[in-house]
Prior knowledge:
Herpes Virus-1, ubiquitin protein ligase activity, RING-type E3 ubiquitin transferase, three-stranded antiparallel sheet
Amino acid sequence: MATAAIFSSLRRRRPPSMEAFLAPVNLSDVALLQTLATVSTKLVSCFSGKSFFFQRKNSRSLIRKIEVFVVSLEYLKDSGSASRLPTTAVVCFKELYLLLHRSNVLLEYCAQSSKLWLMLQNQSISGHFHDLNQELLTFLDVFPLTDVELSEDVREQIELMQKQARKSRLYIDANDESLRIQFFSFLDNFENGRIPDPVELRSFFVDKLGINDAKSCRAEIEFLEEQIVKHEGDVEPTASVLNGFIAVAWYCRFLLFGFEDNEVELQFGSHTKQRKGLMTTEIVETFIAIPKDFCCPISLDLMRDPVIISTGQTFDRSSISRWIEEGHCTCPKTGQLLSNTLLVPNRALKNLIMQLCTARGISYDPPENIDPSVEVLTFALPIKAALEANKATASLLIRGLLSGSKGAQTVAAHGIRLLAKTGKENRALIAEAGAIPHLRKLLSSPIPVAQENSVTAMLNLSIYDKNKSRIMEEEGCLGSIVKVLRFGLTTDARENAAATLFSLSAVHDYKKRIADEGEAVEALAGLLKLGTPRGKKDAVTALFNLSTHTSNCAKLIESGAVTALVGALGNEGVAEEAVGALALIVRQPIGAEAVGREEMAVAGLIGAMRCGTPKGKENAVAVLLELCRSGGASAAERVLRAPALAGLLQTLLFTGTKRARRKAATLAKVFQRCENYSLRFGGPGAGYAYSSSSSSRDSSFVGNVSVPISVSVPVS
């Protein structure tokens, strides 16, 4: 079990917890010696021929010590003296078992880690070797050498090793340390606004470190990125400084190795291969790493100052303030009317966000006006060096987009896609450098991966609010994104185009333009019907955003979006967004009539009431009520004939949200009036026409309905 824990830690490329080391128990003296001999022999055979780029002297010294133990253990095992070991020696050998395993972990760590990481950790890892050497010395001092039967030459080797261990001091390789200092000097150059000499960078990366191509440079970058995540921000150098080194490495990847290295494999679609690096995951996966609740539903960016509005939803203060200032009186997420415009700070969520940023080294800008009564946690801010290095990288990438071959443009678009994935600073500097017009041209590329990279880069850039206007103002850019949505060469390209429209539609003024852009709504409806689970999610969220603009109702009906939304009610992954969009659409009479004409609408809404989230149930009963009010006689009849509705309403009246209970009570009154009408006049029909100007909207439906249902309505 101890071995499994150790090697599990190695696979994670993290130093293992000391709790993973357990000495062997219930072993005879002979079995213990056999185990020690096997472990030490295997360790020597694994590492004696391995070339260590860093920590060469410390590694060789440790391996030589273990070789002496191999000789001693083999002698004891072969001589038959194992059964006559004194108790003190047995205890010491159990300690040796732990030391051997810790040696194995440290050597594997040095053999498997990246060069840049080992260089940055040079002093720390040297300290680990020194600590291990001191523990070996303690073992040798305690071990009863005179009481154990050993040959003279073996005894002399152990005594010599003990003498050398006493003289040993902490050793930090001067050449390794000079490389570490030089790497810091590059970061210092960027910090002071100077770009390091390309000749020095090439000498450092290629000649001194042996990083000879784009692939090996990318592997180094990915390893550094992994350390930030796996150490959860508790890392030295700090996460912000480490991000600076990553930015320098990215700059060198394109400066030294250009754009042609991966041209062939990119053109042939190997981009679909699963990659492990932090920055190779796209914006959708970013929301998995960063909880969705930490991101503003309007801007999709990490919230800087989360506030709660009257509907109970949380938004970033700047985004919701702008929404209200634009004259909106509804919640942008649920469509509910705002009872007031008070913004209540969500301090609990704000503290959680800052803790996440601290742990993961994520860039996080505090709001300009901070309440002094609120304790502010420290977090990793982007250092100037990282921003300057990323700015230099962006210039190289845009140069590749502008003048490179098709393959070079593909690689450059991929670089922008990754650089724009995290941090509004990166998104801003890329757009300011002029990337959007060049990415727009690449949207029509016949190379599938080039098109996918460009639309995904556009998606990542659009997360930053100011870039939304840049994209929308770029002539032909919106149309090109819609064409990718309709005719994209890969599934990912089409899905990311839908996600881009969702991001852009966060701005109210753009909702109408997007809906009117050549068959954009039709394409979203098609993706909602036939797309992958992720594609359906992208499509339904985009349609939801578009449905918040009242002028888009007719377009949504004509384009088949209503039919697609009704069909999505049975899909658990998108049902909540679908019913939310329908709740907005039915507020207009033509929308209610369109939904009422859908044969499966009532059944789908009943299903949402039965199995949906509290918000989904709330919207579902609201849609059913609107169908009774404005959806026409046929729709009203289907609602009132639904056999499962009475029980669901009864449950909702007691367990639903405040709005859901109010809607359910109103719908229950409709049932009671229908029943009373039927009993009084002996006929199967009843009608209630609802006036939009009436608060109770109590009149009659046109049509024959006979539904003998009795639902008790709570007084409160």
